[in-house]
Amino acid sequence: MSVPTESIPLERLAEVAGFGLFQVDADRTLVAVSPELEAITGFSRDEVLGKSCLTMVRCPQCLKGCGVFERGQVRNIPLTLFRKDGSEVRVLKSGTVLRDESGEITGAVETVRPFDDADLGAGTGAIDAGQILEGLGRMYLATDADRQIVSVSNAFARMVGRSAEELRGTALASLFGEDLFGVEGTLTRALEAGERREGWRARMTTAEGSRIDVSLSAGPAPGAACGGAGDARFVLMLRAESTQGELAIGGHYHGMIGRSRPMQEIFRLIELLRGNDAAVLIGGESGTGKELVARAVHASSHRADRPFVAVNCAAIPNELIESELFGHVRGAFTGALRDRAGRFEAADGGTLFLDEIGDLPLQLQGKLLRVIQENAFERVGENRTRRVDVRVIAATHRDLAHEATVGSFRQDLYYRLRVIPIHVPALRDRREDIPLLIDHFLARIGTRHHRALRLSPGANRALLSHDWPGNVRELENVIEYATTVCEGQTIHVDELPPEVIGHAPAAHRTVGAESPLSPPDGSRAPASPVRLPGSGGTVVGAATASARAADDLAHLAPCERREAEGILDALRQARFHRGRAAERLGISRTTLWRKMRELGL
């Protein structure tokens, strides 16, 4: 059975289909952009990633609100975009929202394609939502009124192990069970009542008879949204929860997270190693997750039910590491009061992970080489040869090839360890994975602290623009820090660690200093404390409130930015009292609230 993947690269999808494509998160922040969209708009991805979609896809209709998030799906909407050079281009826009397992909207995928009147009349200007989902590898299917399949995505067909033609006419109950989709099934009753159900779990039967746990959402079909199936009555979106024998859907794989091409290649390589016991050498900077890769190799191998033993060679004193690895007998050295088995014996039948192998003393490298080659060793102070069946996986942040050349690491050991090399990329080299990692850490750390937090657009941009010298470990620590210091429900820029704020654009980190929002006469905003709306009651200085508001202005069009600055100026003069600010502006409090919401203040 072929292995399904979460998505093909945006570049390849846009190249094949000939459209501009972009993806945004729930805050409408751009997280992916295709080269075709760069060509259409004149903006490069480096200019817009981490910023609002309005910085790239600019049109009067978009400034009023994004129909994708309001409606869940838009198709073939004619728009006029303003390119970077000020020229205009007519496009057709389609899009669909993305949801997590609980049904919450996590973002959207949208396409734009230049068109003329002939294209619009022919109805060929843009692909539909089903084609978008298909291109992203999403699993979906559509059924008729009797809950029999009329259309499926290729990703779903691959998962089931049957062709789309074979699946056509199959009853949902035969795939997911009578309890959910039988005549009196729970989801059947909901669907027939015209209701939508999200985040349900089911167990799906494949053509090979194996069972795969999936989460699914189901609802009435919005016309012929999926694959153009005109008789579609219901639509199901699915996500695989099991990774047994398959790459994970959603960028999660054996504890690792990544949709980027380098990480997907690592996942596929690990899949290919399932029946292979060869030694693996994992390289990469500190904090990239080398031990997670080692654990994934072990978990996907036939040794998965045997021990995984990890040893950090850099954390053990040189005089103790031989005993730690191979064990010792009583009296072998001062303090050896009893026999003790080493890590090789503890890992018998399983996997021994030697982290920071480059720190292993040169005099021990020969003994390690013998164990790898012969599966034989002696405890310290003992003549008896012991045999074990152990797979060795090593990791290092050093350039072992160079060290082997200069003689600080044994060449024969280096080549014996480097049968299967795996390089884990630095986080700065796979920035498209950062939003996924942020969501993961916010959920995991938030659960531990009993918090449900989100990032402000400015804080999100700061995290996306940081160089991450400490890689994934540093990102996790930053989210831990922000969760601890944040008193409201939204993490703002000033609640991130200083080293991260230091890498954010200056406008994002200005607190209490003169900024583009300062009054024309150069006077400062009042320094007395105010209570920010939506801050969970947090009392902050007015200058900090201005900085947080400035945090959300960078994405606005010039005319909107001027309106937002006027509103903020009135709020500052009213000491952030909305009623008095509305009076200054000559509008009602309700209108002020609506404008603040529209402008993202």
Characterization of this structure:
With 601 residues, the protein is of the alpha+beta class. The protein folds into five domains: 123 residues, Beta-Lactamase (2-Layer Sandwich); 102 residues, Beta-Lactamase (2-Layer Sandwich); 164 residues, P-loop containing nucleotide triphosphate hydrolases (Rossmann fold, 3-Layer(aba) Sandwich); 82 residues, Helicase, Ruva Protein, domain 3; 91 residues, no CATH class. The protein has 28 helices and 25 strands. The strands form eight sheets. It has a five-stranded antiparallel sheet with strand order 2-1-5-4-3. The protein has a five-stranded antiparallel sheet with strand order 7-6-10-9-8. A hairpin with a 5-residue loop joins strand 3 and strand 4. The longest helix has 16 residues. It starts with 9 loop residues before the first helix and ends with a helix.
CATH architecture of the largest domain: 3-Layer(aba) Sandwich
- DSSP strand content: 15-25%
- What proportion of the residues is helical, as a percent range? 25-40%
End-to-end distance: 50 Å
Rg, rounded, reads 29 Å
SSE order and pairing:
Layout: H1 10-17, E1 20-25, E2 30-33, H2 35-41, H3 45-48, H4 60-63, H5 67-71, E3 73-82, E4 88-99, E5 105-114, H6 117-122, H7 129-135, E6 139-143, E7 149-152, H8 154-160, H9 164-167, H10 172-176, H11 178-181, H12 186-192, E8 197-205, E9 211-220, E10 234-240, E11 252-253, E12 256-257, H13 261-272, E13 280-283, H14 290-299, E14 308-312, H15 318-326, E15 327-328, E16 340-341, H16 343-346, E17 351-355, H17 362-374, E18 376-377, E19 386-387, E20 391-396, H18 400-406, H19 411-417, E21 420-423, H20 434-449, E22 454-455, H21 457-465, H22 471-485, E23 490-491, H23 498-501, H24 506-509, E24 529-531, E25 539-541, H25 542-550, H26 558-573, H27 578-585, H28 589-598
Parallel strand pairs: 13-20, 13-21, 14-17, 17-20, 22-23
Antiparallel strand pairs: 1-2, 1-5, 3-4, 4-5, 6-7, 6-10, 8-9, 9-10, 11-12, 15-16, 18-19, 24-25
Helix pairs in contact: 20-22, 26-27, 27-28
